[in-house]
User: Fold these one by one.
Assistant:
Number 1:
Amino acid sequence: LNTTTSNQTNFVQNQMLTYLILLKGNDNALIIQLKPALPVNYLFCFKFGSVPVINSTVNDFDYCKIFCSNELKVDGTDTFYQFFLTMSEVNKFNGYVGFGLRELLSSESAVFCPGGVNNATEKYTKSPPVLSDPKSQISFSTTITVRTILTGCYYLGSDGNWLSDGVEIVEAGTNTSCTQCQAYHLTEFAGGFIVLPEPINFEYAFANASIEKNPLIYATVITITGLYFILALVCYYFDRRDRMKTGIC
């Protein structure tokens, strides 16, 4: 995620950094993993069909959750926060879904994270904290990497189609290398797992495409291109020599 706060007028209308994901395909569970470079507490909100909106007059979201640093999950060498929606919660939704997040203020962390008066460890769906002066209060102290995963459990029906009724994903046993399924009927079933591709940020790519920032890439491309033209000339020479040898005996 680009966590710069240069365009602060957007934070007045929506007090979060927002992001859209396109869901397509079969019945799936949705996993959103947020990997901050530093252990920071966050407010996270999610909405089907558009990005969530939080401000002093509007609360438009489907789920909100407080992520506290003691909730960071560990998977191998990765450490991240995880938002998980089951297959029944996603309910075969196809289209755009959005999420937003912002860092909690120290005063908010004292209230909502362990040691405060309200430890928000479950989905926080009613009244997320709202800032009084978002233009001056919103800041991001660290970079955040996002990974979105679709995973599902299915069984082969008598008609030869993969079905999902009576089968669910178990969050506790599901990670980036394993999907744990729970079935309510006796049948053979299988799991599917897709890591959604990250959209290309062309504005960021072109802004950092100078030779000074990418000398090795430019040197590699120029070298390969030069070798291509040299080999093309060599091949042309041998082709021309072969044509001169062609005749009728």
Note: Residues 215-245 form the longest helix (31 residues).
Number 2:
Amino acid sequence: KAAIETSDRVTTVSPSYAWEILDPWYSHSLDRELVHHQHKLSGILNGISQTIYDPATDKNIERNYSLEDKSGKLVCKRALQLEMGMSTGKSPVIGIVTRFVSHKGLDLIKYVFEDIIRLGYQFAILGSGEKIYEDFFSEMHYRYPDRVGLTIGFVPELSRKIYAGADMFLMPSQSEPCGLAQMIALRYGTIPIVRETGGLRDSISDAGAEGGNGFTFKTYNAQDMLDACLRARVYYDDRMKWGRLVNNAFK
């Protein structure tokens, strides 16, 4: 509070989060202070290193690829499926790399997980955190071993393989001041499916819009997230549409 009072400028990590924190839901009781000083409040969208995260040079992935030559991405997908014990084939793979905590939207995923499986998806999941989510994903891995690959923990090398090998990347966050995972996914030509909050809103535009680079949904609702996954599946099955979308992501 003292810093907000006495500083010349107050900044945060995305334009959308700058106005979200004027709401008591997001502001941890500092909303009145921030509203009073909103004339000096702004958000600057975070970024990632395009050198560190580069599928053309990344030594962690099975084969390098780029916007100009995407053939290596399919090789990375097959390698990911094999490493995580899933069946190989044409099924689209959704990647999840996250902490297993509720504000990351994992309740939505729990609610419709098997519905998404029935759409023909596979999951490559990496993360750790609250036991309720670790147990849930472990059960899904046990129930669908050929469709759900799971590693409990934090393995940086595997995260790169998921970014490179997945077709889509799911981030249905309750709140996300900025988020970097969706930007890394774009860098690897992997299409984000995100809720429109914070930096996710600022960095991902829906495929239905001109120059769209992902799939978005607004309300914190599992059925809306499921609908975004369904729309992603329809695009995935149309190779022309999907190719354009991947190109937009790379750019």
Note: The chain has a mean pLDDT of 97.
